[in-house]
Specification:
3 domains; fatty acid metabolism (chains A, B); Butyryl-CoA Dehydrogenase, subunit A, domain 3; three-stranded antiparallel β-sheet; 53% helix; fatty acid binding (chains A, B); peroxisome (chains A, B); Acyl-CoA_Oxase/DH_mid-dom (chains A, B); homodimer; alpha+beta; six-stranded mixed β-sheet
Chain lengths: 687, 687
């Protein structure tokens, strides 16, 4: 299909407009990139870009939006194979492999083999098992998956129906899924690709139920990839997103594996059926895998939102509607209502990326302590990781949605990129603990800690307990002036002070926790009656932690760093957005705290003012995130601003339009359906 | 691909669980259907079901989730042709045609010809033009589209770049799109199907700019459907949803049409280029089309949310996780946090459907008055239609999203149905006035009315102005007791009284309007500074109107109707959800109104209690909405509760699994990619 090539955009065109915005930068973009993304991340990104730019015939995903699910798989497997080759040829490292998959921005079909399957082998194999299973997996000679969730059981792992029964006669385990609902379901990398599965099963030895444990089950032949006898396996079908992942189902009908295949780090079954649990393994260690997964989700969400704000801010700065008579129309980013929706998301992107550095350090500190046998940091780390996984995924996913809506109709086109970011990342609010469930876990820890403080018991020293202790103020050790640092300060002073904003956030969360702890521990009412309250408490806690960690990251900069003004603005806008989200929470604070109606109204007003002030540097801020065009795959968000040229070029490649195939498709529609419709009653006949 | 047929669900199975829920009904479901959907709607639905069940080879959409975009189009055109035939054979009426498309629940590719194209011809043709264009359109001998939006211009219609210039020499108009951004874009039914377009263009006659007007342009040959010379037309490519609609682009390069093709109701150009606007046409009439479209979106959103809550409630009542030891696991609907998320959405579905009856009556009253030359109702109708379109679409779309999240992982499968409801209906928050723009239109009317009242000027008598007048209370005509009817009432009394809840909603909205009016009219600050505030004011107004109208609909029932208790509960839950949405709005009310902290906390508590109480009848409530399985197209929401059997059956039909084709696809993946991966380093080579 041809389109007149002489047609240009109306002026001022989008590329020009974007260039104008870039002149407003008041900080060095590359320094900001290194600071906010981290040095190793930005170096890895550049290396990954070299690799994918060298072989566009493999890595270019421009046409992806036009492919059927099967065609997308074909392309995704092609990419996997090429990356495996480069990895084997030592042209890329394991970390660079991951960086490349992140740049490509689509789920790749072996990724569960790389992640959950590998991690579980690393954590739960003995040395012999590592040799048998882990080594070939690291080299892709085994492709594995992690089969836990069943059709009928997700959150409640203890309720799974799959069994593994020790058969002493043959020294084997027999795996069985006795019902339809026992079918493993949603298992990534299983539907088409995997040769092996780690199957979580109810373990029975000599008629006794031992608990839920993992076994390695070979499921498809290495020779022809056909499922083994008794193995029923396939793909679970199309999903909202994530369609280049072969989430699969698996039903095992009395399938036997050698006793060796039970992963033996936490459980051992001897030849004669004696069950032992190795000594020296603290059962709390099992938490640490979940903590790791959630930490990594939380830390990754900033990059998801970074894509969306890059598209939305760039497009809002070049899309013009209305304006003063006789002048060019105004970029929609000039409108307050547009700024109000997008600038806080830019701020939260920075907060997400910034806090992740500190959060990962906390995580590593906790893990190092555990290595030394010190578990004292784990509980708070577990609670924070639940709360931050929940908050980060919610913020990023619905932030992407807001960015889509911000782009108007064009946001709804696949060529915006935004719909894929939304759909592919949506599962983050559900998997690894549904966000609504996670709030309960965090808040149980919070109120327990609060109650310990109230009872004068000792609690671990950490950011959360410190804030709670402070505002419990046992024995009135602190004066009102020391507690309510914001009282007697002017609103304009408060909204510019990272510390004062953080103090209000800490106080709000501490009061909410304290009130709930009183209901549960003093009034002895069941926690289950407060699951709704737990959601808001969990959010308030996460908002405090995010600001705390983001602030700590900013403090690593020299006081005179040219990055500071922009980062401080991002911090304050984030904090104000948290405080004004539902002002009812502020109105409900105890009177002595001086969070007055006047202060609340002023916070609202100053929030709007600070958003307005940040408009100028909105494009430089998203540019500094340095999300490459390859990751964006978006007409609206292109770095060069050639929005409409790209949009039209992509439309012409739509299968319905494409020269040759498109003509044939349209002719067939006309011959079969449209022609007979137009012919009128005389042409009408039953098909 | 085979799956063991002997496998049953674990007990209690989902079909049994659903049947148990149905026993809890305390109202007659069929009566509720007729009351809430309306008599004509429910009759039309049954007729439509007869038609589609008679020809499953045409109308069964079960396989739709597995089709590529081109395959979906093929099926959609097949349906269109069959419906056109049935219509021509007089086996279905025009209304039944529409009812069938609604049951099928997918966008059909001729639908813009049936709607905007037809409506515009009806409203803007003279008699001769109706004969030439409207008659064949009604019989599908013309397939038309409405081309207004351009690549670079959506909201700002006055800014469109397409021109239509009168060429006196040949008595023609020449249409031209001089830039890339002038390309018509997003035009439904244009990309593949349309033979004609109504093109909105800047009209120039004798060098003079007249304004934006519609012209009929033939674009594709009736013989072979090829575009005419100078016409560049195609599909705009894949979208987030709505993919069986051929949204298209159109660029006209100096294309000429006869002068006759300018739609002549509001503008006439004579042979010698004299421009006249017919007398007796009130320009305000042009509002009425927009009002009609928005009214119909608002009225339709209840049916969208009805689908989602049907799926979510049914599945939540049969999906079991956790529970007391030794007992079957509990349905997740037993958990407070699940109830809190889904029951208010059931209530809002009833509110949406209920208020739509009253809203349509208001609309018809307004239109009848206009027929008589009385425009006094139009302004409020316009403001309400903007506000309700905004509120209804927002509530329905994000309600669908919540329902998806409620279904856990399985909500993310296409077989839940929920993702299609979300994606296909998402444009309702954008088109026909982006929701953020609409709030401004509504609120401008509200504050203007408020100012008139403050200045003692007369305002139209309508629901909105009545509430504003009441709470302005000029001259203190009403006592505090008359104004603040809820003061001195116990919270438990308030939350059960539809009238008292409505009074608080009215007061809240009136205060918010009054405060904003003061800023704009008294303090003379620009309205543009309050676009964020305008959003919340618009929401508060809509929430008041929704309750008012829903309440009026309930009042049509006899006092002893067995439907009343359930409907009253739906009303109160809706109202409490509106009031507790952001309690900051209540805390900020003037002190004299006695909306105390205690009352606000009690509203929160009673809101949770009323949700809990409604849990028992949740399934009967969604059953009574009578959304057929054909519309749901959902494993999780099936009327018979056979969730997992259907889910597995659908998975087996996934192209990757399907016998024959699936085997070939998987073999090709293995031969090309997976096999070489598994072979290890020796098998590695550059592709």
């Amino acid at each position: 299909m041809r389109f007149p090539t002489h047609l240009k955009q109306s002026e001022p065109n989008t590329a020009y407009s974007l260039a104008q915005e870039r002149k407003k930068a008041n900080f060095p973009g590359s320094e900001m990139d290194v600071f906010i993304n981290g040095d190793s991340y930005s170096r890895m990104r550049e290396k990954a870009l070299q690799v994918i730019r060298a072989e566009p015939e493999i890595f270019d995903l421009r046409d992806f939006y036009n492919l059927s699910r099967v065609e997308k798989f074909d392309h995704a497997y092609k990419i996997e194979l090429r990356l495996v080759q480069l990895f084997r040829e030592k042209k890329i490292t394991k970390d660079e492999f991951s960086a490349i998959t992140q740049i490509l921005g689509i789920p790749l079909p072996y990724s569960l083999s790389r992640s959950m399957f590998t991690t579980t082998l690393e954590n739960q194999c003995n040395a012999e098992q590592k040799k048998a299973f882990l080594e070939p997996t690291l080299d892709y000679r085994i492709i594995g998956c992690y089969a836990q969730t069943e059709m009928g059981h997700g959150s409640n792992v203890r309720g799974i129906e799959t069994t593994a029964t020790f058969i002493e006669e043959t020294d084997e385990f027999e795996l069985n899924m006795p019902t339809l609902t026992a079918t493993k379901w949603w298992i990534g990398t299983l539907g088409v690709g995997a040769t092996h599965a780690i199957v979580m099963a109810q373990l029975y030895v000599k008629g006794k139920h031992i608990g839920v444990f993992p076994l390695i089950v070979p499921i498809r032949s290495m020779e022809d990839h056909k499922p083994f006898p008794g193995v029923h396996v396939g793909d679970i079908g199309p999903k909202f997103g994530f369609n280049t992942m072969d989430n699969g189902f698996l039903s095992l009908d009395k399938v036997r594996v050698p006793r060796f295949n039970l992963l033996q780090r936490y459980i051992q079954v001897s030849r004669d059926g004696k069950v032992t649990r190795p000594k020296g393994i603290d059962p709390r260690i099992t938490y640490s895998t979940m903590v790791q997964v959630r930490t990594s989700i939380a830390a990754g969400m900033g990059h998801v939102l970074a894509k969306a704000v890059t598209v939305a801010v760039r497009y809002a700065s070049v899309r013009r509607q209305f304006g003063e008579a006789g002048k060019p129309e105004s970029p929609v980013l000039d409108y307050g209502i547009v700024q109000y929706r997008v600038i806080p998301l830019v701020a939260k992107t920075y907060a997400l990326l910034g806090m992740a550095h500190e959060f990962r350090e906390q995580y590593e500190r906790c893990m190092s302590a555990i290595e030394e046998g010190d578990f004292s940091l784990l509980k708070e780390m577990h609670a924070s990781s639940c709360g931050l996984k929940r908050w980060s995924s919610e913020t990023a996913i619905y932030g992407v949605d807001t960015c889509r809506h911000l782009c108007g109709g064009h946001g709804f086109s696949q060529f915006s990129g935004l719909n894929e970011y939304f759909a592919d990342n949506y599962p983050n609010i559900i998997w690894e603990g549904d966000n609504y469930m996670l709030a309960q876990q965090t808040v149980r820890y919070l109120i327990k800690t609060a109650n310990s403080i109230a009872c004068g018991e000792s609690v671990g020293v950490n950011d959360t307990s410190n804030a709670l202790t402070r505002y419990y103020n046992k024995g009135n050790r602190l004066s009102a002036a020391q507690l309510y640092t914001w009282a007697n300060r002017s609103p304009s002073e408060i909204v510019k002070s990272k510390q004062l904003l953080l103090d209000i956030l800490a106080y709000r969360f501490a009061v909410m926790v304290q009130q709930l702890a009183t209901k549960v521990y003093v009034e002895k009412r069941p926690f289950e009656d407060f699951l709704v309250t737990a959601q808001t408490v969990c959010t308030a806690h996460a908002e405090f932690i995010v600001c705390l960690y983001f602030g700590k990251h900013i403090e690593k900069l020299p006081a005179n760093s040219p990055l500071r003004p922009a980062l401080d603005a991002m911090y304050c806008i984030s904090a104000l957005s948290f405080l004004t989200r539902n002002t009812g929470e502020l109105y409900a604070l105890p009177k002595e705290a001086s969070v007055t109606r006047e202060l609340i109204e002023a916070l609202n007003t100053e929030y709007l003012n600070s958003i307005k002030a940040a408009r100028t540097i909105a494009v430089p801020l998203v540019d500094a995130l340095k999300v490459p065009d390859e990751t964006l795959n978006s007409s609206l968000g292109r770095e060069d601003g050639k929005v409409y040229e790209d949009y039209m070029a992509r439309a012409l490649e739509e299968p319905l339009n494409r020269d040759g195939t498109g003509d044939a498709i349209r002719k067939s529609f006309f011959d079969k359906y449209i022609g007979p419709t137009l012919k009128g009653p005389s042409g009408s006949s039953k098909l």
